[in-house]
């Protein structure tokens, strides 16, 4: 079992404020899991009662719309935490988390982590900053959905996927989303997303090979997204 003080999550999350003794205590109470691609970490409306540390892999956070379609709200990568807001507000999670690839995660129960809010002020501030940042991202996403066209949102999303998650050795986006998942990110019908991707390909902006997407002209995509 890996120790929390040696974990990548500590470097990029609120846990970086905890000292060595506090991290050793967390190591004794955490539970490690392997989540397979397509498996659910938690579902919307569930009482999680703790936080999940993403050691490796990527998951999608989704919201079920009234018409029964999953809207992808955010993608979460290694080094991030899940469940902080629900843990503090003592409410069920308002999103579902589903693995996009095999993941390594650790679960820390609420009872073992809430004490650090009283003992470690910097930890409390880090958690608050993370939640504020998530709210800012949600505001920005809402404005984008309301003011930008679907074409602009698709260009913006493709650039975001490359900038945030990088490229594979063949130049394609590291995150391989189905057309349905990609349409869920930009808030449109799957058919519209497929048609726009085909248009981008004809314009020489991208290459398509199954689920793989290669960005060929990021500068033009950037202009479209603005």
From TrEMBL:
Transmembrane segments: none
Pfam families registered for this protein in UniProt: cNMP_binding (PF00027), HTH_Crp_2 (PF13545)
SMART domains assigned to the protein according to its UniProt record, in alphabetical order: cNMP, HTH_CRP
Residue span(s) of domain HTH crp-type: 148-219
InterPro entries given in the database record: cNMP-bd_dom, cNMP-bd_dom_sf, Env_Response_Regulators, HTH_CRP, RmlC-like_jellyroll, WH-like_DNA-bd_sf, WH_DNA-bd_sf
Record keywords, A-Z: DNA-binding, Transcription, Transcription regulation
Domain spans labelled Cyclic nucleotide-binding: 14-110
Descriptive protein name: Crp/Fnr family transcriptional regulator
Organism expressing this protein natively: Flavobacterium myungsuense
Organism classification: Bacteria, Pseudomonadati, Bacteroidota, Flavobacteriia, Flavobacteriales
């Amino acid at each position: 079992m890996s120790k929390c003080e040696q974990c990548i999550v500590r470097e990029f999350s609120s846990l970086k404020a905890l000292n060595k003794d506090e991290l050793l205590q967390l190591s004794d109470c955490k539970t490690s899991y392997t989540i397979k691609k397509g498996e659910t970490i938690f579902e919307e409306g569930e009482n999680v009662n703790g936080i999940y540390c993403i050691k490796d892999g990527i998951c999608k956070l989704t919201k079920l719309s009234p018409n029964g379609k999953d809207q992808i709200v955010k993608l979460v990568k290694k080094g991030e935490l899940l469940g902080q807001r629900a843990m503090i507000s003592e409410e069920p999670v308002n999103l579902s988390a589903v693995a996009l690839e095999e993941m390594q995660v650790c679960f820390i129960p609420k009872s073992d982590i809430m004490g650090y809010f009283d003992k470690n002020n910097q930890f409390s501030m880090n958690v608050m900053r993370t939640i504020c940042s998530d709210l800012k991202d949600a505001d920005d996403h809402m404005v984008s959905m309301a003011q930008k066209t679907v074409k602009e949102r698709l260009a913006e999303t493709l650039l975001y996927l490359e900038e945030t998650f990088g490229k594979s050795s063949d130049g394609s986006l590291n995150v391989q989303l189905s057309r349905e998942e990609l349409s869920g990110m930009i808030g449109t019908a799957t058919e519209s997303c497929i048609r726009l991707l085909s248009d981008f390909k004809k314009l020489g902006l991208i290459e398509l090979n199954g689920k793989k997407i290669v960005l060929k002209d990021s500068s033009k995509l950037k202009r479209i997204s603005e």
